[in-house]
Amino acid sequence: MYDALPQYLQDAYAQGILSANHRSAVFMDLYRDTEQLFREKLNLPADYTLLFTSSATESWEIISQSLVEQSSYHLYSGSFGKKWLEYAQYILPATQGQKLMANESLPVDQLQLGSDVDLIAVTQNETANASQVPMSVLKALGQRYPEKMIAVDTTSSMGGIALDFSLADVWYASVQKCFGLPAGLGILLLSGKAKEKVARKGEKGRYNSLSFMLENASSYQTHYTPNVLGIYLLNRVLQAMEPIAQVDVRLRARMAALEEVVKQSATFDLLVDNSATRSTTVLAVSGKEEAIVAVKKAAEKEGMQLGGGYGPLKSTSFRIANFPAITDAEFMRLVDFIKQY
Fold first, then answer.
1. What's the CA gap between 222 and 245, in Å, rounded?
2. Contact residues for 328 (Cβ-Cβ < 8 A; gap 6+)
3. What is the DSSP pairing of strand 117-123 with strand 149-153?
4. Region of residue 195 (phi > 0: left; psi between -120 and 50: alpha; otherwise: beta)
5. Fewer CB within 10 Å: N-end or C-end of the chain?
6. How far apart are CA 240 and CA 102, in angstroms?
7. What pLDDT shows up at residue 12?
């Protein structure tokens, strides 16, 4: 969490935000201003619309229900990308996917996708194994398949690295990672092309149908009673943050320092040793189970909490968040701690 969060909470209470009706002018102004801040701070293109959900994972169903006409094709390397594929298959059984190793670059030139695939799903930053897909690969994917839509999971990278939103039609995230806020608010961004497809498919059978969401968003309202406090806090974080290009440079420099320390370690290794597919905002460190247990306990005694490994990597790895809310001094203190190993 950002250190300024307690003050933001006090301000929300004092300004009456906690009682704001989501059909009121106060809320509509907040929504409009927050979308504008996405354009100013994160370089969101003019024709993209900001929508709010309860979490990033809610977007799994929304995308399949309202955007995919025949099937989607999922490119993933870890547990969250796999879960997105599985939930998409529940809705559209023809959906398929391709699993990559965490160190494996996405083979764009080898993909053979038929006309039955109308959306390509990419987990840009895989939180489970700390791998990522760079913007250059997304660009190549769009150039190879310009007729298909691209949807991108940036749950643990949006707000931390510079994303070129023009390279895909759908982007989603949650606020509890790089936005430094409590969980409970999801972000969904749609391009003009995506909005046209929503209208063409015309799916209106569910409460979270995109047609219903977009209809309300056109007047800066939401279709359901939203997390007004979360939206207000997001607005305040965006106001205070540097332009994303500056945040990107700062986070990459910090991560480079940490990676170098892990490379020199006699105890630990980088879980993803391919720099082209290694995440900028989450670092996974591997080692023997007893060493993982020992370093986590030692870190706790120093007032630092190392994230556990995820799923099958739980006992043989730990994860380090390189999120903007963590100060440079705090991060470098961790780097110095890891040097002992």
1. 30
2. 250, 254
3. parallel
4. alpha
5. N
6. 34
7. 95
Cα dist from 185 to 33, 57, 191, 302, 339, whole Å: 17, 11, 20, 31, 36
Residue 15's contacts (CB-CB under 8 Å, 6 or more residues apart) are none
pLDDT, one tens digit per residue, over 6-17 is 999 999 999 999
CA terminus-to-terminus distance, the chain: 28
Cα–Cα distance for residue pair 154/158, rounded to 1 Å: 5
Taking CA atoms, 284 is separated from 132, 274, 279, 291, 321, in Å, by 12, 12, 9, 14, 9
Measure the CA–CA gap between 325 and 265, rounded to whole angstroms: 27
Give 21: exposed, middle or buried? Use CB within 10 Å, 0-12, 13-18, 19+.
Answer: exposed
pTM, two decimal places? 0.95
Tell me the C-alpha distance between 146 and 294, whole Å: 50
Check if the beta carbon of residue 250 is closer than 8 Å to that of residue 325: no
Helix pair 210-217, 192-201: axis angle to 10 deg: 130
Tokens of 111: 């993909």
d(CA 335, CA 332): 5
| d(C-alpha 240, C-alpha 234), whole Å | 10
pLDDT tens for 297-313 read 999 999 999 999 988 88
- At position 142, the amino acid (one-letter code) is G
| Beta-bridge partners for 119 | 72, 149
Contact 178, 158 (CB under 8 A): yes
Tokens of 30: 């907040």
